[in-house]
Amino acid sequence: MDGLRAVLAMAEELGFSHWGELNTGALAFRTEVRDMCAENRCGHYGRTWTCPPGCGTLEEITARAARYSCGVIVQSTGELEDNFDVETMLETGKLQAERFDALVMRARALYPDCLPMSAGGCERCRPCSYPDAPCRFPDLAFPSMEAYGLIVSDVCRDSGVKYYYGPGTITYSSCILLG
Fold first, then answer.
1. CB atoms within 10 A of CB 164
2. Mean pLDDT for the chain?
3. What is the pLDDT averaged over residues 108-135?
4. Which residue in 61, 77, 152, 156 is a FRET match for 33, CA 20 to 30 A apart?
5. Please, are residues 143 and 118 in contact by the beta-carbon 8 Å criterion?
6. What is the SS3 assignment for the chain?
7. Does a cis peptide bond (omega within 30 degrees of 0) precede residue 167?
8. Burial of 73 per CB tally in 10 Å (0-12, 13-18, 19+)
9. What span, in angstroms and rounded, lies between the C-alpha atoms of 115 and 164?
């Protein structure tokens, strides 16, 4: 538990808006979420190592995640000027990604085999090497929570972390399975 507390302290130090202990026992890896991925609305399905089918089958993902008994959930929240404030949405997403990269690197000092899940698909390489060659940056390429079949709002609720912070806000959520 000391390692978990240390990672939570790291989240605070890195400036996440919200953080908390992840309820790993309540993680539900859902076929219907993966089916939504297959609709390819984001354009990543079948194009990256961190999205389906490149990140593994639902069975493989579930088995991989079952090895972990604790974790953290971290969020960045931005205040929107209006419902069309795309600039703040993008800035908040970028800030979440930067903070999460830093958190994962620091958490790996305590938990070398941790399993990070980001907010959104990997954008590190354009184009991704999938499926023709191995990932160029496997230590920096994180699947999204949705790619793993998770409903982010359910994960937040079941972990005692809010998902919605009121009108005029945008929140990005990521998690790390630790040990």
1. 10
2. 96
3. 94
4. 77
5. yes
6. CHHHHHHHHHHHHCCCCEEEECCHHHCCCCHHHHHHHHCCCCCCCCCCCCCCCCCCCHHHHHHHHCCCCCEEEEEEEEECCCCCCHHHHHHHHHHHHHHHHHHHHHHHHHCCCCEEEECCCCCCCCCCCCCCCCCCCCCCCCCECCCCCCCHHHHHHHCCCCCCCCCCEEEEEEEEECC
7. no
8. buried
9. 25
- Cα 83 versus chain centre, distance: 24
Q: What pTM value is reported for the model?
A: 0.95
Residue indicated by tokens 């790291």 = 10
- Summarised one tens digit per residue, pLDDT across range 68-89 is 999 999 999 999 999 999 999 9
Query: Given the structure tokens 């937040």, which residue do they identify?
Result: 156
Q: Count of alpha carbons within 13 Å of 79, Cβ hemisphere only?
A: 0
Of 7, 5, 24, 25, the residue nearest 16 (C-alpha)? 7
The residue length of the chain stands at 179
Q: Hey, what are 140's tokens?
A: 């920096």
pLDDT of residue 1 exceeding 80: no
Alpha-carbon distances of 92 from 56, 85, 97, 137, 162, rounded to whole Å: 29, 11, 9, 23, 17
Q: What is the pLDDT of residue 42?
A: 87
- CA max distance for the chain: 44
